[in-house]
Every structure is written in C-alpha cells, then in structure tokens.
Fold DNA-binding transcriptional regulator, LysR family.
Amino acid sequence: MSDFRLEVFHTVARRLSFTKAAASLYITQPAVTKHIYELEQQYDNKLFERKGNKITLTKAGEVLLSHTESLFAIYRNIDFDMNALVHKKEGTLRIGASTTIAQYVIAPLLAGFHQKFSAIQLHLINGNTEQIERALLDKEIALGIVEGRSRNQEISYTEFIMDEIVLVCGKNHPFAGRTELDPEMLRSNPFVIREQGSGTLQVLDYALKGVGMRLSDLNIEIQLGSTESIKSYLMHSNCLAFISVHAISNELHSGTLRVIDVAGLNISRNFYFIHLQGKTDGLSEVFLRHVMLSHNLK
C-alpha cells in the first residue's frame, strides 16, 4: 500500500547504505539512487549527506524518516483492521526483546503464537534494555519486552513475569560448596558483568545499596556483552557473576554452575512489555492477549 519510493528511502535510512538497501529490496543500486533522487526533487531537499563511501541523514532526511515510520505503522494497522473485518488476523508484528528475554524466555511464546496465528509474520530484534527502548521510540518495533523499567514518559510499561537475579560461580570455584556468603565477601572477589545499558546492571546496582554496597565496590575483571559469554567465562575462571535464574537452568541441572545465596540480598525484578504511550496497535494487542492467556495473567 505504501509508496515504494518511501520504502526505498526507509531502507537506505536504516542501513545507511545504498548497496545494502538494494540487496535487501532486490533491486539495483542505480534504481535505489533514482528513487532517492526523485524524493529529493519532490521535497526540494537533500535527504542524505554523502562523504566518500559513507552517508548520513540530513535534517530533512531525519524528518522524513520520522514521518515514514509513523506512516508505515498506520499502514500495518489498516491491514490488520481491514483483515479483522473478514475474521482474518494477518500482517507483520515487529517485536524487540532485551538479551536475557530473547535468549531464554521469548522463543516458546513466539512458537505458540505462530501456531495459532500463522498468517501474522513476526520479526524479532534483540539488544540490551536501553537499545530496545530506543528502537521503540524510533518506531522500529511496535512492542518490546525488557528487563526493568526506566522513567521515560513516552513509554508505557505492563508487568509480564517475575525474574530473580542470583549469584553464580563455576563448579570449581572455591565458593562452589558454600550455600551463603556475607555481602562483604563480594568486595574481594573478581566479577564478570554485563555491558552498560543492561537491565541486569541497573537492578543489581539498586539492590546492592540495600546491603551497604555499590556496583562500583565490586572488583570487575571484565565486562561482556551477553549472558552466554558470561556463563562460559565463569566455567574457565574464578570469577563470580549475577545472572538471571531463567538463564542458567541447564547449567544448574548439569552442575557446571552453582548458585550461592548472599545474606540479606534478594534481587527480584519484573519483565515488562513496553509500547508507546497511547493505544497499542491491533497486532500488538493480539500478541499481548495471547501471552497473558498463556501465562494465566490478567
């Protein structure tokens, strides 16, 4: 339904590459250039700055991208609402999930949803909580699931399920046989943690204050970008880590990782669905209803 030139512009703007856009759209690079030129002529504005092999959006390009995102969201809603009139549920739903959720929680939900609504195409992106919130604000996704709650007034948060973050070590760690540690013992042991922007770090920093500590008090040996890399690192080092309990069920069963309680420290949090303030679109509503019913949530 949308103007194909806008689809070309949107693809170039998101990939910042004429070559990648051409490959993604299955058209030639000269065709991409022609469509962008026609839009620039139509709006009497340059949409991209070209510096060697790199391109960036101009101010006019940023404005057009914002309107294009909104327009495509409207088109998706039109498709859904019109199909609903003839009892069809089809279209494309773009979802974002923060790393722990994407790796350990959401796959069964997506599979169950696809079985029931096979005509709805699902596209999933993942990143840390900060990145998923940014994707929502940029309208790259219609719905997100994140590990924590920021104070952004443009985002609406709906509780999903509870999570617990636990202290974990490898089976050969000196603490592996212990059931509980005094919080002060955390200061003298090396840690591996997630990167900045992670929802886990935000919750951990807040929880440590309850036992008179800060995240900066931990002896950080290394920061890694995924829970899987942290688990592997634990198995080959004497580090400790705080990890979501959802992420370590297999390792606990096999005995390769161990959980240790920390006296007075209980780190729990909610996973949240997020969408922009205001009414969610039709496909997002269908997905939310399906998930809530699957988990017996209201």
Q: What stands out?
A: Residues 1-67 form a domain with the Arc Repressor Mutant, subunit A fold (CATH 1.10.10.10).
